[in-house]
Amino acid sequence: MGEKRAGAKSGDADQRIGRRGLLIGGLVAAVGCAAVARRELGHLWWRLPGVEKPRVAGAVDFRGARWVAASPANYRRADRPDDYAIDRVVVHVTQGGFDSAVKAFQDPRHGAAAHYIVRKDGHVTQMIRELDVAFHAGNRSYNERSVGIEHEGFVDRASSFTDAMYAGSARLTAAICARYGIPVDRAHIIGHVEVPGTDHTDPGLHWDWPRYLRLVRAAGAASARPHATA
């Protein structure tokens, strides 16, 4: 979610190819559109009867997370990373409370939702499976390639970002990076403001990126250590 820039365009760029786009233009345009259409169909294989992968109701991708389903209108079913490679984590701030963010993501009229919300106390709620494409970044390509994490609070209030929130979010991001082989650096863990074409400013100047990356690396190292056995 996050604060929008004044005068910037709004709306999520995750839109399907229109029929008009396939009809307009000459032979060159038609060939180009056909190539794009074939790529689209290649990402929709799971819609064929008997092909869609089984899903367990209420299952979460991050251990310890609580499942609360977002409206299906706010994401697109997929089979990532098989159909879309995942190589980014996008950090958001809700610009409001936890409950209001959950309600917004459950509202089909909202048109957007992130995969996760992290509360101030560090609790993690998952609303969209990582295999699905959440409409969170305002850029179709980045939606398809990323996992979106919202954080309860406001971009202009440093007090929003508690120790518990940083720790809980870092464990979540470390698990996502380990699952998909994402490097823990600022090129691959980014803010919503850094998404091309975005109209948002989150996570804002008060988000402590050096601290966050240290915590993510530490959480990743801790989870990678073999557990002692009796």
Beta-strand percentage range: 5-15%
**What structural class do you assign from the helix and strand content?**
alpha/beta
CATH architecture of the largest domain: 3-Layer(aba) Sandwich
Task: Name the average pLDDT.
Answer: 85
The general outline is globular
Helix content: 25-40%
Calculate Rg over CA atoms.
Answer: 19 Å
Number of helices: 6
Q: How many DSSP E strands? A: 8
CATH topology of the largest domain: Lysozyme-like
Considering the protein shown, what is the CATH homologous superfamily of the largest domain? Peptidoglycan recognition protein-like
Overall number of domains: 2
What does the largest sheet look like?
6 strands, mixed
How do the helices and strands follow one another from N- to C-terminus?
A: HHEEEHEEEHEHEH
Amino-to-carboxy terminus distance: 46 Å
Low-confidence stretches: 6-11, 15-31
CATH class division of the largest domain = Alpha Beta
Strand order across the largest sheet: 1-5-4-7-3-8
